[in-house]
Design brief:
Length: 195
Amino acid sequence: IDYPRMLRERFERAQQAVKAAGLGAALCFNVDNVRYVTGTHIGEWVRDKFDRYALCPRDGQPYLWDPAPPAKRISSPWIAEHVAAPISNMQGALPPKVGAQQDFARQIKKMLVDYGIDKEPLGIDLLELPMLRALEKEGIEVVDGQQAMLDAREVKTQDEIQCLKVAAGMVDATYYDICKAIRPGVRENELVAIA
């Protein structure tokens, strides 16, 4: 598996899909889309917080908002110059009166201006309503971006296929070990421990 090639090809496919959809960019919150665009991931805990997101502009490099920018600059040097701290209301953990949604929208607007795409439609894959409304108040045209990302990810690259084969082999080996261990009296937690 050529990981640098996979990262490059994934981002190129995402940009092609953004262009084909007529978007200035796609702003991704879905953890799989963020990983696809940036080649970075930080685990399951971020799934329901909307505190990590990435911009896939139609031209230029991706931009990542991550809760730990200094760590990301070390662990992911390919995006080190394009990462900053996110602004989020943590899916409602911060009440609207705090104003995180307005700060978030200004953050995104500034980045769109920097990329020269602030007058173009911004595709969003998923986002909570107060954050979306704040983007609209900043004059950003928000449209569906999930379909563009699904289009980008639909056909797999040679390296993605190799990753799928490795993952399938790991699952097969795990099920083989579980099949050997299944017998009367074995507890489910013992089988889970094998997995």
